[in-house]
Amino acid sequence: MSSKYDDLEKLRDLYAKGIITEAEFQAEKEKIFNDTLGNNKNVQTGVADDNRSYNAIMHLSRFSGYLFPFLGIIVPIVMWATRRDESESVDKNGKIILNWTISVFIYVIILVMLLVAAILVFGGSMAMSGLAYENGTFDGFVDESPFMVFRFLGTLGILITPLILLGVLGFIFTIIGAIKASNGEVWNYPLSIRFFKTK
To answer: How much is the pTM?
Structure first.
């Protein structure tokens, strides 16, 4: 059983002697490298085992953000940037993580802006109409003000619930993405905007 290096050396000799053309040399060289990589591939997916593990770890590295803020963003990006040129599967999984990260950032910005607007609108109207001030002292609430407080709290609940849901979905999608990546599959997180094409 000859090694890939022996086969490659024989191929170079044939090319140097003019027995095969450059196109034939490149095609045979590609076959040699594909056969070598084929021994380390998952039969169903064709993704090398080390890349499958790397992709799964890249997804799971998002959890490092629970230890230190922004680490869950930085670590996957660094992992993706270091190996994206070496493997198409690493590139695709890195883009999936990046798409989700950017999408969540946009969703959070929108929800926070709505939250601030709700606080300004309801808080201002509560301050103006819900409290009874006389001679510069607080005299209690006007009759309508408890309803205003409940409306304000309800609006906050409606806006905070999607923020909590985004956190829960991010946790679930990360686990699913890691499992799919360890099986050699490419899985786009639902609700993520496709800034970077993955298919």
So the answer is: 0.65
